[in-house]
Amino acid sequence: MPKKKTIQGQETLIGIVTPVQWNEFDQVTAVALSATDDEEYRIENGEEFIDLIQKVIEASGEVRRDPKATRTITIKHFNVIENF
């Protein structure tokens, strides 16, 4: 069986941090970046960004896209954008 091909590379995205997964106590356990390119990127290191839900950030890091349209980002650097 052939390996799935993924496209990855360093990118900078701007978007809103949004919750995408909750536990049985209704606590957020995973977040995504709803980016200005109209795509959603699951944040791989999302536990660091739970406190930024509903904030606009500029995030730089490694982006991966697989053929089934799943997108993820591992954020290396970010800035909160106050007046977006």
Radius of gyration: 13 Å
The overall strand count is 5
- From the coordinates shown, what is the CATH architecture? Beta Barrel
How many helices? 0
> Could you say what the CATH topology is called?
OB fold (Dihydrolipoamide Acetyltransferase, E2P)
- The helix/strand order is EEEEE
Indicate the overall shape.
Answer: globular
Structural class: mainly beta
Range of helix content: under 10%
Sheet having the most strands: 5 strands, mixed, barrel
Please give the CATH class: Mainly Beta
Contiguous runs where pLDDT drops below 50 for at least 5 residues: 1-5
Strand order of the largest sheet: 1-2-3-5-4
Mean pLDDT score, rounded? Answer: 91
Distance linking N and C termini: 46 Å
Please give a structural write-up.
The chain is mainly β. It has a single domain (7-80), classed as OB fold (Dihydrolipoamide Acetyltransferase, E2P). Helix content is 0%, strand content 57%. Strands 1-2-3-5-4 form a five-stranded mixed beta barrel. The radius of gyration is 13 Å and the shape is globular.
Summarize the structure.
The chain is mainly beta and 84 residues long. Helices cover 0% and strands 57% of the residues.
Q: How is the secondary structure organized here?
A:
Elements: E1 7-22, E2 28-35, E3 40-43, E4 56-65, E5 71-80
Parallel strand pairs: 3-5
Antiparallel strand pairs: 1-2, 1-4, 2-3, 4-5
List keywords for this structure.
globular; 0% helix; disordered N terminus; mainly beta; 84 residues; five-stranded mixed beta barrel; OB fold (Dihydrolipoamide Acetyltransferase, E2P)
